[in-house]
C-alpha cells in the first residue's frame, strides 16, 4: 500500500480513503518519533512554530482573503466571516497561544499511580501520548494552530479536517507549521491536513480505526452528531451546551442579575453561554422585573412561560411565548428561554429533562440547595454562584483547551493536555511469576 | 412511552428495541437514586447480595444444570462447559468476591483535582458514577455477579446481556440480586438482564445512545469486534491479547525460562497469556534448547521460524513451521509461536507489527534495553522481568476488575472501580462573572 506514496500520481493517492489512510499512517510514524521527545525539544518546536506563523503573516492573510471572498460570495453570515478572518493582530495572538502552551508542564511521563506490591513488583502507571489525534472542525483557522500546538506538547500527531470555507488559509498554516517542525528536527508529518480530499476525506478519517486513536469534532450540533453517528474511531463529543441558570429563592438578587447577564451576553454564540433561565416562584415577582429589564436593555429576546409573559407585559417589555421546543434550544444568539418554577425540585427536574450535560448553574444562598444541585444534576460542570462562562480550559487553570467534552468517557468538561494522553502500566520484577 | 410498562402485554414491551430502551430508562432512574448513596449503604447491599446468592445456592445450581444440559446437547467444548458450570463452592467464591468489593474504598466523591483560583473561584473535580453501564458477555455466570458488584460500588446501574448459553442461571442470579437490593432499600432495577430479548436485544443495547453511558463487551474476539463496529454507545474494548515475551541477550536465562513457562502455561485461554516468544539471536543456541524442552514437557505445540525448527529438530522435538498468520494468532491454547530475532530493534519492530496492545514483556539484564522497550512499545502493560499473567486487576492491586481494556480512551489495562466513574467539575463562587 505504501507503493503509491511515491507514484507518478504525486505524493499521495488520489483516492480519498487510501489518501487519508496514508496520511494517518505517516502521522503514526511521526508520532512514534515524538513519543519519547523531551520537553525542551517540544517547547523549542512550539516557539519555532509561533515565530514561523508571525513571519508568514502576509502570506497567511493573503490566503485567508481568498477564503473570506469565497465566504462572502456564498453569503456566509457576518458572525462566521468574523470567525474566519485572520489579521496580523489575530495571527500574533494565535502565535502567543503556542508560546503559552510551551510554558505549560509536559503531561507525558507523569506517574499517575505507583506502588511497590507486597511481592516486590514495582508498578508505575505513566501518562503517554494517544498517538494520532484526528480533528474535524469548522471555519476557525485558530483551531488549526491550537490543535497542532496542544497535540505536539502532548506527544501526538494531528490529522486535521478544517472545512472547505477555511481551506486556503489552513493550507498555508499547515505548511508553515510543518516547515517549522522540520527546522527543529521533528517530522513535518506531525501536523497534516486532509482538506484536499473534501467530505470523502472526512468520512475516511472517521473510518480509520486502528490508524487514528481518537477523533474530536468541534463545531455546530449537526457536525458533532454526524461524527458521533458515523465514526468507527473513538470520538470525544464536544460542545453542545443547552445551559441553564437557576435563581433560587434565597439568591442574592444582585449577584443573580450579574450572573444571568454575564452568562447570556458576555459572549454570544459559545457553548458555555446560558440559554435558559429558571426563577424560583417565591422571588419571581421581585426578580423578573429586574432581570427582564436588564436583558431588554441588552437586546435579548425573551421566550417566556405564562408567568414571565405576565411580568414582561406589566413592564411593557416584548416577550414571545415559549414553546416546548424553546426549552431544548441552544440559541447561540441574544435569546433566552425563561420559566418560573415552584421549587428546587422542579428546577432540577426541568434541567434533567433538557440538559445537554455541559454546564448548569445555581444562584443561591442556601447550602442545602447548593449541595442538592451539585449532587443531583449530571453535567460536566456545575456553577454555584458563578457565571456559566467559566467552563473554559483557560478560566479553570488548564492553560489551554482543545474543546469542551460533553461526554462521560475519558474527558469531561474542558480538555487540556492531560486529556490528550492515555496511560501505560509498567511492571518491573526480578523474575516474578504468578503462583 | 412509559404507558406500555404496565400494559396487559406484561411489565415490558414485547418489541426488543422498546423493551431494552425501557430497561435502560429504568436503570437510569435507579442509578440516580444510587449516585448519592453513601458507602455504608452500598457495602451493606453488597453483603446482602452475597448472602442471598449463598442462600439461593440450590436454586442457582438447578438452573445452571439446565444451561449445562443444553450446552452438552449442543456440543459445547469441555473448556466452555467448565466455565459455565456453577457449584456450591464456586457460588461461595463468587459471593466472597462481592464481600471483597465491599471492602474496597468508594471511588465516588473522590476529589481528583482541586484548587482555589487567583480570582477566588473554588474548583473541585469530583469522581461521579457513569450512570448506566451496559455489558455484553459470554457464558460465564460469575461475570454477572462481578459486574453487578463493581457497578453498585461505583454508583452505577448495570444492564446485562449474558448470552443464551447461560440464560437460566443468569436469570435466577439477577432475580436474587434484585431481591437483595430491595431488602436494603435500593431499587432492584440497578441490576437488570436483557437476555429475554435475545440477539435483537443486544443490538438494541448497542443502539441505546443517550440511555446507556458506556458499553463493555467481554468475551472472544468476534464478540468484541462486533460490538466495537456496531455500537453507537461509547464502547470500552477489552481483552484481545496477542502477548509477546522477548528474551534479550542479557537475560538471566533461568528467570527467562520461568517467565516464559508461567506466561504461557500458568493459565491457558486467558487474554494475558503469552502467544509468541522472541529470542535474541546471541543466546538462541543456548536458550532455545532449554525453553523448547520445558515447553514440550508441558505439551505446548511450537510454531517456529527456521532457526527454532532447526533447534527443535536437533533435540528431536516436534515443531510446526510458523506461517505469517501465526504471528498474529491469539491461540488461547497450549501453542506458542517462536522466533529468533537479531536484536532489540527487530524485537520491537516485530511486536509493533503484531501487538494487540495488551501486554508485552521483556526479560533482560540491561537497563538500556528495559528503558527502550518501555518507551517504544505501545501497550496497556509492559512487563520487565515479570510474567505477562500479572496484567490483572487483582494482581495489580486494583482489588477487582471488570475486564482489561486494550483501547486508549478512558481506561487502559485492568478496569477497576475508578474506571467505572467519570468526573464532574464543581465551581463555587460568590457572584463571580467573567470580565
From TrEMBL, chains A, B:
Q: Cross-referenced PROSITE patterns, in alphabetical order?
A: PROA
Q: What is its EC number?
A: 1.2.1.41
Output this protein's name.
Answer: Gamma-glutamyl phosphate reductase
Q: What does this protein do?
A: Catalyzes the NADPH-dependent reduction of L-glutamate 5-phosphate into L-glutamate 5-semialdehyde and phosphate. The product spontaneously undergoes cyclization to form 1-pyrroline-5-carboxylate.
**Listed GO CC annotations:** cytoplasm
Q: Which organism is it from?
A: Pseudoclavibacter endophyticus
**Which top EC class is named for this enzyme in its record?**
oxidoreductase
Q: Which gene encodes it?
A: proA
Provide the GO biological process annotations: L-proline biosynthetic process
Amino acid at each position: 500500500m505504501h507503493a503509491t506514496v511515491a507514484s507518478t500520481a504525486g505524493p499521495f493517492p488520489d483516492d480519498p480513503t487510501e489518501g487519508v489512510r496514508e496520511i494517518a499512517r505517516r502521522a503514526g510514524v511521526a508520532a512514534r518519533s515524538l513519543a519519547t521527545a523531551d520537553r525542551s525539544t517540544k517547547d523549542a518546536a512550539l516557539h519555532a512554530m509561533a515565530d514561523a506563523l508571525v513571519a508568514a503573516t502576509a502570506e497567511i492573510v493573503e490566503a485567508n482573503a481568498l477564503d473570506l471572498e469565497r465566504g462572502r460570495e456564498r453569503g456566509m453570515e457576518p458572525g462566521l466571516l468574523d470567525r474566519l478572518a485572520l489579521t496580523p493582530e489575530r495571527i500574533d495572538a494565535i502565535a502567543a497561544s503556542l508560546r503559552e502552551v510551551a510554558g505549560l508542564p509536559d503531561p507525558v511521563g507523569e506517574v499517575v499511580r505507583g506502588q511497590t506490591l507486597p511481592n516486590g513488583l514495582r508498578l508505575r502507571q505513566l501518562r503517554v501520548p494517544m498517538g494520532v489525534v484526528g480533528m474535524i472542525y469548522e471555519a476557525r483557522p485558530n483551531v488549526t494552530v491550537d490543535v497542532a500546538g496542544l497535540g505536539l506538547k502532548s506527544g501526538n500527531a494531528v490529522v486535521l479536517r478544517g472545512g472547505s470555507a477555511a481551506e486556503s488559509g489552513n493550507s498555508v498554516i499547515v505548511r508553515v507549521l510543518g516547515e517549522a517542525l522540520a527546522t527543529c528536527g521533528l517530522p513535518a508529518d506531525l501536523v497534516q491536513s486532509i482538506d484536499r480530499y473534501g467530505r470523502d476525506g472526512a468520512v475516511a478519517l472517521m473510518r480509520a480505526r486502528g490508524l487514528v486513536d481518537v477523533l474530536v469534532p468541534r463545531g455546530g450540533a449537526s457536525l458533532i452528531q454526524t461524527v458521533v453517528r458515523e465514526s468507527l474511531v473513538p470520538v470525544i463529543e464536544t460542545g453542545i451546551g443547552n445551559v441553564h441558570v437557576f435563581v433560587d429563592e434565597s439568591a442574592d438578587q444582585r449577584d443573580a442579575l450579574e450572573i444571568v447577564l454575564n452568562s447570556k451576553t458576555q459572549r454570544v454564540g459559545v457553548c458555555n453561554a446560558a440559554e435558559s433561565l429558571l426563577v424560583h416562584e417565591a422571588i419571581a415577582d421581585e426578580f423578573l422585573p429586574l432581570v427582564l429589564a436588564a436583558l431588554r436593555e441588552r437586546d435579548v429576546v425573551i421566550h417566556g412561560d405564562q408567568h414571565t409573559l405576565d411580568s414582561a407585559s406589566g413592564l411593557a417589555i416584548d416577550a414571545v411565548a415559549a414553546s416546548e421546543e424553546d426549552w431544548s434550544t441552544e440559541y447561540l444568539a441574544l435569546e433566552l428561554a425563561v420559566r418560573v418554577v415552584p421549587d428546587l425540585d422542579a428546577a432540577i427536574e426541568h434541567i434533567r429533562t433538557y440538559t445537554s450535560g455541559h454546564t448548569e448553574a445555581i444562584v443561591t444562598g442556601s447550602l442545602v440547595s447548593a449541595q442538592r444541585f451539585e449532587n443531583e444534576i449530571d453535567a460536566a460542570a456545575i456553577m454555584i454562584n458563578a457565571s456559566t462562562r467559566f467552563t473554559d480550559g483557560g478560566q479553570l487553570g488548564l492553560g489551554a483547551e482543545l474543546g469542551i467534552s460533553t461526554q462521560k468517557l475519558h474527558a469531561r468538561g474542558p480538555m487540556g493536555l492531560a486529556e490528550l494522553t492515555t496511560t501505560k502500566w509498567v511492571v518491573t520484577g526480578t523474575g516474578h511469576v504468578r503462583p
